[in-house]
Specification:
single chain; 180 residues; alpha/beta; Rossmann fold; 7-stranded mixed beta sheet
């Protein structure tokens, strides 16, 4: 079975990163924990045994699953100064196709999709290509670009999400059985 972080480890990660990412726009990192915990609960219910079957995107070094594969983009916008973190895959998700041949049981992307303008749809199709399940938290409206609406995700997926929950910082979606 997988090992997950708990709230204390989450707080340690926030402190370790030491930048304003976790408190951006006046949102305290504690306000972000509920959707992290919900994500952990959903992944736990999948009964995945190998952490390498989980790809976490945009973690900035704060993964939920201990030992999961990570995909981040090390550039000036997303780099955390003074924090030694090397993702499993260093790639800009806006460049398609993604250089990933491996297949995952689940992709987790918490507050990532709204940064992918103008290729949000194409990136979602890429996620469907490489994973059985896609778990996303994404605002519907955001000042950094634009959010992605439930209607858009539903259209791209071809049906409603299997799980939809309003959480702080944007809805949580789980799309099951998405592999193309």
């Amino acid at each position: 079975m997988l090992e997950f972080i708990n709230y204390e480890k989450y707080v340690q990660n926030v402190v370790k990163t030491g930048n304003g990412h976790w408190t951006a726009k006046g949102i305290n990192y504690a306000d972000r924990w509920p959707y992290h915990q919900m994500t952990i609960d959903i992944i736990r219910s999948m009964r995945i045994d190998n952490p390498a079957d989980v790809l976490e995107i945009g973690t900035l070094g704060a993964s939920l699953v201990v030992g999961s594969d990570t995909l981040d983009f090390d550039n000036d916008e997303f780099r955390i100064t003074g924090y030694d973190y090397k993702p499993t895959i260093n790639h800009d998700l806006r460049i398609l196709p993604w250089p990933i041949e491996k297949h995952y049981k689940v992709i987790v992307a918490l507050r990532v999709w709204h940064h992918l303008k103008p290729v949000e749809r194409e990136a979602f199709l890429e996620a469907k290509r490489i994973a059985d399940n896609v778990l996303i938290v994404c605002p519907e409206v955001n000042v950094r670009g634009r959010g992605v609406t439930r209607q858009q995700f539903t259209e791209w997926h071809g049906r409603e999400p299997d799980i939809f929950s309003d959480v702080a910082m944007g809805p949580l979606y789980l799309f099951r059985g998405v592999s193309c």
